[in-house]
Amino acid sequence: MRLSKDRQTTRASVKLGKWVELDARTDFSPPGLVAVGLLVSGILLSASVLVAATGRAKARRIEARRDRNLPR
């Protein structure tokens, strides 16, 4: 695989108080950015499915609780 010449690089530095200093550096190629975008979109889509399933389960529990209180 040929390395891309148009790579994107960034650095970040965070200092917390007197003793903690964090330095980070990242380096992406265009195919790498596409891969990260696909991974993030997959995570967001799966999270929305989990939230929707949780809402449906909660609605079913509420309805079942309501049905148990009905006079027979």
Short précis:
With 72 residues, the chain is an alpha+beta fold. The chain has one helix spanning 30-68; strands spanning 8-16, 20-28.
What does this structure look like?
The chain is an alpha+beta fold and 72 residues long. The chain has a domain at 29-72. 54% of the residues lie in helices and 25% in strands. The chain contains one helix and two strands. Strands 1-2 form a two-stranded antiparallel ribbon. A hairpin with a 3-residue loop joins strand 1 and strand 2. The radius of gyration is 24 Å and the shape is elongated. The mean pLDDT is 83.
Write the layout of secondary structure elements.
Layout: E1 8-16, E2 20-28, H1 30-68
Antiparallel strand pairs: 1-2
Indicate the overall shape.
elongated
Mind telling me the C-alpha Rg?
Answer: 24 Å
- Number of helical stretches of at least 4 residues: 1
Helical content (DSSP H or I, runs of 4+): 40-55%
- Tell me which oligomeric state these chains represent: single chain
Strand arrangement in the largest pleated sheet: 1-2
Instruction: Give the ordered list of helices and strands.
Output: EEH
Write down the overall mean pLDDT: 83
By secondary-structure content and strand pairing, the structural class works out as alpha+beta
Number of strands: 2
Please mark out the parts with pLDDT under 50 across 5 or more consecutive residues, or reply none.
Answer: none
Percentage of residues in strands: 25-35%
Largest sheet: 2 strands, antiparallel
End-to-end span in angstroms?
72 Å
